[in-house]
């Protein structure tokens, strides 16, 4: 994660040094950081230590730069691009290639050292203001992301940047900043998780206008502890799955170890157990245990926290995210291409009209994806420049297929060459064909023989012996006589029989050239249905774009170990053999269906996707339209009474109270209804009436709720005194009942 963002191509330019009056941006961040004019006229602010108190008082080291003052016209406010650093880094040099590229194109530049690193409380001794808050929060939406929002608000209040034209970019940890800023767009997140409008300290409305995150994550749980829940053809491939039944995965051991060590050496961690939102020490101890995690409360709390506050795919999307150009690396084992696809599919499913595009190539994190070729880098730079120019400055045409388009550059050997370019209007359209390998019977992936090469070093061109691993379940696609190009995620559909709570299946896809093979894709599945016998499940390897040369075979290897890339199951619950039955391998290719590649290898049209319960196909794999079905409920206020109530015979010369009952049925479509009775009335026998009135009681007398229906019990009471005169015959009275409502 410490890898720098792709060095963007420098643009040569000459400038006239402006006069002192023209160069007047004397200070920024509310006057806290002084600015100086450079020989080329650019204004640099905060080239050394320049800490400001953030929203909660934590010191944050910031810098800003501005183009030369114009010869005429206003000097700002400028559209601004925030450029954010990787794990273990600090704010970017204003004289560096990234800042200079933006300045030369007329943008202001903002950069900062994230909380817990460098002069932002990372370096000891630390200021008192760092205590209890200045440590690394692992790109928390309410801390690191809000620090950037607060500092940008200060620049808006200074009048030097346009609060509505803000861009964000960066690689790795910096890319996580950019994608989160874009997902929040015009909102901040408070520490309690609530959202509020993003305004500057003086009340200016702020928003992100465009982002270009590079080789970063969208779901940190999946990136660090993959479980196989992510599928590139679904709209809701989140870590726990749409039904919440997916299990905590397998630690990427080598990456977790190296990243954590870098933070210990270069940054500031909160003491274990002191802050549930930033407990990196505790989280590392939990994942180092190796599982099992199903009943581990600490592991459940950790994954919930990383999803809620550290992963852009979970950010509330009631506001459309900023236009985003997402770029990830094919051979990046830390943050592979599916991290971008997950966010892309979510946005496309919810807001198909929103600009979002992807540009994937072979770059990213060392060692397997750390070097980008000059040709590939220049192609990405041109795409990023066009994206920001259009969405930040309104310059140039809208990028082609801005709403869902995909550009890729293939992996290649040597990595210094230029990748082959493919473009499609959407991710599903990138690979119109599919090569399938279908098998029957059962093979076993068992603990035992470790892989001959861990593939945690070297690039995609590194090779190892192609001899089969005796402990693996191995499947081979025959060598074709014509070249074909993979583009997407290899999909495995199989029945897995697992016995242990800690079992997993590690998958590797090799390009086999005679006695040697290259690892071109890998993945892992934490199976569901432990102990239930063979259970069909589907999972994928990380996406790849790779041309298989004539005479090369593809080999899929399913293993019960892949150390040190993946942590081996703990001794408490060791890995058991996993049975693999009736496996089908599906390989997406750019070649057209019906193409005969020779030696029995043909390209078919893709078959229907396997969609687990609760998952929903992403746009392009399926289309959705809302139909309507309805009806009307007429306004109803109805009342019906039961049979007449009878007191029976009254006894002359006695003092008694007589009762009689009936019922009333109430029907009302209103929210409330009240039943009342008229009175008082007397029981009459012809012209003669009883002296004491008839009383009426109703239970209940009122109803409430969305629909008010029910039955009322009605009781009549008649008192007879010892001296009351009674006349022979039948007595009767009429009582009028009224049902009313105050609602329509």
Note down, in words, how this protein is organized:
The protein has 3 domains: about 25-220 and about 310-430, Alpha/Beta hydrolase fold, catalytic domain (Rossmann fold, 3-Layer(aba) Sandwich), CATH 3.40.50; about 435-600, Galactose-binding domain-like (Jelly Rolls, Sandwich); about 635-740, Immunoglobulin-like (Sandwich). Helix content is about 15%, strand content about 30%. It is built from 10 helices and 38 strands. The strands form 10 sheets. Strands 1, 2, 3, 4, 5, 6, 7, 8 and 11 form a 9-stranded mixed β-sheet that branches. The protein is globular.
Quick tags:
disordered N terminus; 744 residues; Jelly Rolls; 10 helices; Immunoglobulin-like; globular; 29% strand; alpha+beta
């Amino acid at each position: 994660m410490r890898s720098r963002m792709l060095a963007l191509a420098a643009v040569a330019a000459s400038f006239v040094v402006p006069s002192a009056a023209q160069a007047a941006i004397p200070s920024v961040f509310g006057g806290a950081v002084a600015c100086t004019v450079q020989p080329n006229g650019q204004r640099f602010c905060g080239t050394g230590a320049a800490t400001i108190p953030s929203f909660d008082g934590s010191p944050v080291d910031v810098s800003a730069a501005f183009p030369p003052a114009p010869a005429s016209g206003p000097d700002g406010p400028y559209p601004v691009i925030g450029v954010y650093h990787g794990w273990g880094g600090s704010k970017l040099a204003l004289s560096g290639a990234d800042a200079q590229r933006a300045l030369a194109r007329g943008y202001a530049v903002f950069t900062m050292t994230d909380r817990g690193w460098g002069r932002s409380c990372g370096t000891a001794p630390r200021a008192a203001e760092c205590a209890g808050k200045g440590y690394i929060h692992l790109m928390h939406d309410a801390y690191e992301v809000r620090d950037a929002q607060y500092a940008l608000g200060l620049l808006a209040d200074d009048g030097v940047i346009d609060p509505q034209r803000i861009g964000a970019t960066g690689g790795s940890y910096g890319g996580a900043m950019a994608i989160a800023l874009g997902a929040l767009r015009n909102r901040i997140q408070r520490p309690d998780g609530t959202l509020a409008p993003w305004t500057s300290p003086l009340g200016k409305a702020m928003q992100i206008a465009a982002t270009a995150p590079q080789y970063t994550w969208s779901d940190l749980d999946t990136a660090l502890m993959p479980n196989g829940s992510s599928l590139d053809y679904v709209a809701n491939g989140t870590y726990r799955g749409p039904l919440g039944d997916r299990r905590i995965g397998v630690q990427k051991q080598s990456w977790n170890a190296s990243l954590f060590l870098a933070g210990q050496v270069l940054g500031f961690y909160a003491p274990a157990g002191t802050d549930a939102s930033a407990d990196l020490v505790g989280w590392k101890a939990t994942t180092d245990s190796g599982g099992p995690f199903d009943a581990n409360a600490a592991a459940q709390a950790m994954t919930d926290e990383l999803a809620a506050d550290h992963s852009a795919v979970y950010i509330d999307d009631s506001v459309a995210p900023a236009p985003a150009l997402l770029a990830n690396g094919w051979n990046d084992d830390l943050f592979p291409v599916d991290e971008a696809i997950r966010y892309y599919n979510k946005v496309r499913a919810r807001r198909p009209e929103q600009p979002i595009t992807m540009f994937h190539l072979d770059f990213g994190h060392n060692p397997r994806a750390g070097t980008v070729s000059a040709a590939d880098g220049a192609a990405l730079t041109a795409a990023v420049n066009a994206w920001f120019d259009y969405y930040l400055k309104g310059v140039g045409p809208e990028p082609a297929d801005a709403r869902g388009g995909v550009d890729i550059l293939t992996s290649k050997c040597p990595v210094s060459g230029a990748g082959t370019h493919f473009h499609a209007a959407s991710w599903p359209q990138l690979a119109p064909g599919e090569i399938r390998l279908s098998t029957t019977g059962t093979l076993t992936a068992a603990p035992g023989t470790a892989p001959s090469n861990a593939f945690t070093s070297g690039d995609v061109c590194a090779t190892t012996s192609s001899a089969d691993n005796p402990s693996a379940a191995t499947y081979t696609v025959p060598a074709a006589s014509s070249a074909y190009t993979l583009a997407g995620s290899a999909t495995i559909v199989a029945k897995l029989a697992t016995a242990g709570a800690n079992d997993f299946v590690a998958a590797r896809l090799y390009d086999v050239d005679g006695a040697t093979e290259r690892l071109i894709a890998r993945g892992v599945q934490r199976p569901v249905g432990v102990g239930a016998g063979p259970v069909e499940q589907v999972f994928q390897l990380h996406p790849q774009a790779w041309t298989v040369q004539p005479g090369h075979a593809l080999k899929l290897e399913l293993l019960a170990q892949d150390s040190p890339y993946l942590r081996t199951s703990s001794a408490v619950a060791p890995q058991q053999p996993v049975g693999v039955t009736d496996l089908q391998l599906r390989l997406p290719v750019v070649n057209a269906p019906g193409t005969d590649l020779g030696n029995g290898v043909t390209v078919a049209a893709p078959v229907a996707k396997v969609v687990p319960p609760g998952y929903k196909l992403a746009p392009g794999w399926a289309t959705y339209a809302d139909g309507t079905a309805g009806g009307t409920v007429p306004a109803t206020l109805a009342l019906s009474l039961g049979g007449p109530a009878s007191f029976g015979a009254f006894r002359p010369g006695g003092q008694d109270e007589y009762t009689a009952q009936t019922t009333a049925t109430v029907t009302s479509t209103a929210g409330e209804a009240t039943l009342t009775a008229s009175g008082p009335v007397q029981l009459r026998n012809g012209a003669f009436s009883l002296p004491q009135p008839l009383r009426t009681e109703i239970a209940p007398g009122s109803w409430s709720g969305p629909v008010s229906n029910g039955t009322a019990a009605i009781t009549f009471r008649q008192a007879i005194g010892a001296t009351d005169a009674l006349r022979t015959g039948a007595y009767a009275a009429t009582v009028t009942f009224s049902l009313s409502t105050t609602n329509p």
